[in-house]
Design brief:
six-stranded mixed β-sheet, alpha/beta, TIM Barrel, about 375 residues, globular, 15 strands
């Protein structure tokens, strides 16, 4: 899961000047640049993807495969030495899911992940470790015929050594080149921060080596953040919006069709100072899940049920649903996304000509979300 307790803000265009040694890491890697080839879609040209998270077990049996183009398995964890440290059962435990998805014409794509700036630096400063991970990823791809490619989810939320940043770019370029040499149908995509406040990634260089970015279009208000508010506002909340995020990526030279926006099916409930939207928080939030079946993450608080109990409100700027209530310790605010607020995000993707959307995670969604996706991207409007 993408962990949310990160500071927000941005400094567009900021870039630490690389040393000559760091630059040589990139230039020494002669990779094959990604072309602007069509996204792997079956509908109207917009990618409709989603994440199956390992902790939601067999929830995949309920997915509407008929409206999905890609299914990301989340996650296969990599260690700082370049080895796979925890595949979470991949591939054997997930063979039925892969068979079901591929029989429905859905690409299955493993997600290789890592969390933390220190681990990121340890891995990507070392050419030997990068090569080891490249080998491990190629082995994953060749061991399971029929996969659609690889998705990279390397997350760091604090500044990293410029040598490590350059090393990550070199790794992606080399991986891309080696994947293409084995199977030109494989697609390489990468997680990207909406704002990249700490300037971890050289997106303007990475864009030449990935088929598209999956942009973390949520957690603009995070579980550990200073204020409560919508997780994924399109507009109305200053720089903490999709509008501002799109401006940033376009300024970096990323083509619109290489931007896939990730949308959440969860939310947060914060202890807050007041009952006003955007109130300062008094501590860490609890996570809400939209409305999954009872057997899926049974101990998590259901957002729609909580909102029904305390009175669902809707933010006029973002269309996000929220509620507020008071316990013996003070005010509490819950914010999340539902089919109505997600509709505004789908419209934004269509109107701006972006690549598509990726739902995180699929298991927390409900029938209304599925119907909204189908209408927005594969229904009559898309034909």
């Amino acid at each position: 899961m993408w962990y949310p307790d990160r500071p927000r803000g941005t400094r567009p265009g900021a870039r630490v000047v690389l040393t000559a040694a760091a630059m040589s890491v990139v230039t020494a890697c002669v990779g094959m640049a990604a072309t602007d080839r069509p996204l792997p879609t079956r509908g109207d040209g917009f990618l409709v993807a989603g994440y199956h998270t390992y902790w939601t077990d067999d929830a995949w049996e309920t997915y509407p495969f008929g409206i999905l183009d890609r299914l990301y398995f989340f996650e296969i964890e990599a260690g700082p030495d370049g080895t796979i440290t925890d595949p979470h059962g991949w591939p054997d435990a997930w063979a039925p899911m892969v068979a079901r998805a591929t029989s429905a014409g859905v690409d299955v794509v493993p997600t290789v992940s890592m969390h933390g700036a220190t681990r990121f630096e340890e891995l990507f400063r070392s050419p030997e470790r990068r090569d080891r991970l490249t080998y491990e990823i190629l082995r994953l791809l060749t061991a399971t015929p029929g996969l659609g490619g690889i998705h990279l989810d390397f997350e760091a939320f604090e500044p990293v050594d410029p040598l490590a940043r350059a090393g990550f770019t070199a790794f992606v370029a080399d991986l891309r080149s080696r994947m293409q040499a084995l199977d030109r149908s494989w697609i390489l995509s990468s997680f990207a921060l909406a704002l990249d406040t700490d300037d971890v990634y050289a997106e303007d260089e990475l864009v030449d080596h990935v088929d598209y970015f999956v942009v973390q279009g949520y957690d603009f208000h995070s579980a550990g953040g200073p204020e409560a508010g919508p997780l994924a506002p399109v507009t109305g909340w200053g720089r903490l919006t999709w509008e501002y995020t799109l401006e940033r990526f376009l300024a970096l030279g990323v083509p619109r069709r290489k931007i896939v926006m990730a949308v959440p099916t969860y939310g947060y409930e914060w202890p807050t100072e007041t009952d006003e939207p955007g109130s300062a928080t008094r501590g860490e939030a609890i996570e809400l899940v939209l409305s999954p079946p009872a057997a899926i993450v049974p101990k998590r608080v259901r957002a729609l049920r909580r909102a029904a109990e305390h009175g669902l409100r809707r933010d006029s700027a973002s269309a996000s649903p929220w509620y507020v209530w008071r316990d013996e310790e003070g005010w509490r605010q819950g914010w999340f996304d539902d089919a109505i607020s997600l509709r505004a995000k789908y419209e934004f993707v269509r109107e701006e000509g972006l690549g598509g959307v990726a739902v995180f995670p699929l298991a927390y969604a409900d029938r209304d979300v599925w119907e909204g996706l189908e209408h927005a991207f594969t229904g009559p409007r898309g034909r």
